[in-house]
């Protein structure tokens, strides 16, 4: 237009117009953010707004979040604890980084992480189904050992014989006769990551990044009982309410039910 009118572009200025305050939209964004336990960023908030029939850009969502000081837990720098000794068992990596397009309970991955209980390190173990990224077993313990892994298996509410492969890293907590006996009893095949290669257990690593950020980071639990109760509450929220980008922004349970209905039909 400036070229057509033969005028300098520097004479034309763009004046930003403030968006009209949409209190309903702002309340929706604040509610979604709080219901996500301060974890969702603009991408997931946008998806939740879409479910309500609202089309809002991520940029606008970001401005509203900044206006009200809504900062996702994922923006905070986290402290990393040094890893423990390595398991030297001669077990192959059957999974071989093929994490996607698995059947229900075909591959379960696991890992352990630390939490702060009144200034002392306690630990949690989680069993994750690669099929829909659902936490099928979990446990809290005062020691980082194989008993904690067995305790997590005891919480699984699905037939253990349906699990085909258990894949973990080479942490010594996964090396134990009781655990091996449990796997043998239910004919569960073992798969181990290569030594010093976190990419071989990338899904478990990523999930524990989520758990540490959303559940444990910068939090001191009042007691072990408090940790167990809040872990139960978090797992329920994670499976039934937290949307997952890989699952087309469905929750793990929603995805499992949807896929089951499709198979039946």
Describe this structure in words.
This protein is 38% helix and 15% strand. With 265 residues, the protein is of the alpha/beta class. Strands 1, 2, 3, 4, 5 and 6 form a 6-stranded mixed sheet that branches. The model has no long low-confidence stretch (mean pLDDT 84).
Beta percentage is 5-15%
State the secondary-structure class.
alpha/beta
Helix content: 25-40%
Major sheet summary line: 6 strands, mixed
Note the run of SSEs as H and E. HHHHEEEHEHEHEHH
Distance between the termini: 58 Å
Low-confidence stretches: none
Average residue-wise pLDDT: 84
Number of helices: 9
**What's the alpha carbon Rg, rounded to whole Å?**
23 Å
Number of strands: 6
What general form does the structure show? elongated
Tags for this model:
single chain, 265 residues, alpha/beta, six-stranded mixed beta sheet, elongated
Q: Secondary-structure blueprint of this entry?
A:
Elements (H helix, E strand, L loop, with lengths): L1 H4 L17 H13 L6 H10 L6 H10 L39 E11 L2 E10 L4 E8 L4 H9 L10 E4 L8 H9 L3 E4 L9 H15 L3 E2 L2 H17 L11 H13 L1
Parallel strand pairs: 1-4, 1-6, 4-5
Antiparallel strand pairs: 1-2, 2-3
Helix pairs in contact: 3-4
């Amino acid at each position: 237009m400036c070229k057509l009118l033969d005028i300098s572009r520097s004479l034309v200025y763009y004046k930003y117009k403030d968006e009209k305050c949409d209190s309903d939209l702002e309340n929706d964004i604040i509610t979604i953010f709080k219901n996500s336990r301060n974890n969702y960023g603009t991408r997931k908030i946008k998806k939740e707004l879409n479910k309500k029939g609202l089309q809002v850009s991520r940029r606008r969502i970001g401005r509203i979040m900044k206006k009200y000081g809504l900062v996702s837990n994922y923006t905070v720098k986290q402290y990393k604890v040094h890893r423990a000794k390595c398991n030297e068992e001669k077990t192959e990596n059957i999974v071989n980084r093929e994490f996607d397009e698995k059947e229900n309970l075909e591959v379960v991955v696991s890992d352990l992480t630390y939490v702060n209980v009144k200034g002392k390190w306690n630990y949690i173990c989680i069993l994750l189904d690669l099929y829909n990224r659902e936490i099928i077993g979990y446990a809290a313990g005062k020691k980082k050992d194989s008993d904690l892994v067995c305790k997590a298996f005891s919480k699984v509410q699905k037939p253990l014989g349906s699990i085909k492969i258990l894949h973990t890293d080479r942490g010594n907590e996964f090396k134990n006769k009781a655990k091996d006996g449990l796997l043998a009893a239910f004919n569960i095949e073992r798969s181990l990551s290569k030594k010093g290669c976190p990419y071989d257990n990338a899904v478990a690593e990523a999930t524990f990044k989520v758990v540490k950020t959303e559940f444990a980071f910068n939090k001191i639990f009042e007691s072990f009982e408090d940790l167990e109760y809040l872990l139960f509450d978090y797992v329920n929220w994670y499976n039934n309410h937290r949307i997952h980008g890989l699952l087309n922004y469905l929750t793990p349970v929603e995805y499992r039910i949807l896929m089951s209905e499709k198979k039946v039909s």
